[in-house]
Amino acid sequence: MKKLTLKKIILLLFISSVFTLAVFLGLNNKNNFNSINNENDKRQSIILSVYKFYSIGFSVENRPINITEIGYGNDIGIVLIGCIHGDESNTGELVNMLKEKYLAAPELIPDNLRMYFLPEYNIDGKLNESRYNSNNVDLNRNFPVENWESDAYTDGCIQTSSGGTAPGSEPETAALIQWIINNVKKTVKHIVVISFHNQYSPTGVVQPGYIEYETPGDKSNPLAQFIAEKSGYIYLECWISDIQLTGELINWCETQGIVSVDLELPDNNSPETIPSGKTETTINTIEYVLEQLLLYYKISN
Ligand SMILES: [Zn+2]
Fold first, then answer.
1. Does pLDDT of 213 surpass 50?
2. The pairing of beta strand 190-198 with beta strand 76-81
3. Is residue 279 part of a domain?
């Protein structure tokens, strides 16, 4: 008898908690329904529900590498990367400003698109005001492409082990690769990566990823030309230096079928200033480029 009573009590408690939850959800839905009084509000609430802030891994000094993801489209994912070279801090500032803009107005992102902001990729380098990560590796020489070298040409000369101990040896490199393959590639059909650098003075430059040296990649080339045209920056088929650059991010992207460009800003000043010889601030120029890019990729329903 005693046992049965206990069971009854538990059952009653269960039923009453389910009822309370149902009433609560009902009221909540009602409130939401009242506040959603037109299509725009409805869309806004959908977008707000798909903001994501997360880290893709950790740096050598164990700092999180943070991403902000905005939008809910599954056709195209646009990845904006700042500070792959830690001392190029205005690239991080720029990606942060763009992130804030789209966080404040997510309705600017078309339904079929999704945007990923990675402002301080080389977070240790950024905080240490260094081009390199905390193992003294240039992350943009560490990606697993055919021409990878441990002793890489960087910052004007060949530097011992600046390409890392092996292709993809650095935690930051591994984190980005794993995230792209395991997350982004499974979420969107096509990926576009724009990696910001400084400085190509006074014009600014856009260069596509490639597989064969001096041959612009089929995937990335149209994007590089598009961005060059919209930004007024110079289009460069391939970065010609004294020695071939090895293990670069955008070239790894091209091997993965990912559309990718390096975008070198005209100076290392704040994006809110007008570079010498230009008529617009850097942030205005890049905002315009992105608007045009979103329009280009938008699928009209
Ligand atoms: Zn750079």
1. yes
2. parallel
3. yes
* Phi, psi (rounded to 5 degrees) for 249: -55, -50
Asked if residue 16 belongs to a domain, the reply is no
Task: Please say whether the dihedral angle defined by the alpha carbons of residues 149, 155, 160 and 164, taken in this order, is positive or negative.
Answer: negative
Whether the Cβ atoms of residue 236 and residue 205 lie closer than 8 Å to each other: yes
300 contacts: CB under 8 Å, gap ≥ 6:
none
Show Cβ contacts of residue 57 under 8 Å, excluding neighbours closer than 6 positions. 64, 65, 171, 172, 174, 175, 176, 178, 179
pTM recorded for the entire structure = 0.84
94 C-alpha to center of ligand 1: Å? 14
Judge whether 152 lies within some domain: yes
Angstrom distance (rounded) from CA 251 to CA 147: 10
If 0-12 CB within 10 Å is exposed, 13-18 middle and 19+ buried, where does residue 174 land?
middle
How far is ligand 1, taken at its centre, from the CA of residue 191, in Å?
Answer: 21
272: domain CATH number?
A: 3.40.630.10
What is the distance in A from the centroid of ligand 1 to the CA of 88?
A: 6
Provide the domain limits for residue 98.
52-300
Q: Above 70 in pLDDT, residue 6? A: no
Q: pLDDT per residue over 145-179, tens digit each?
A: 999 999 999 999 999 999 999 999 999 999 999 99
Q: What is the DSSP letter of 165?
A: S
Structural domain total, the chain = 1
Residue 32 Cα to ligand 1 middle (Å): 47
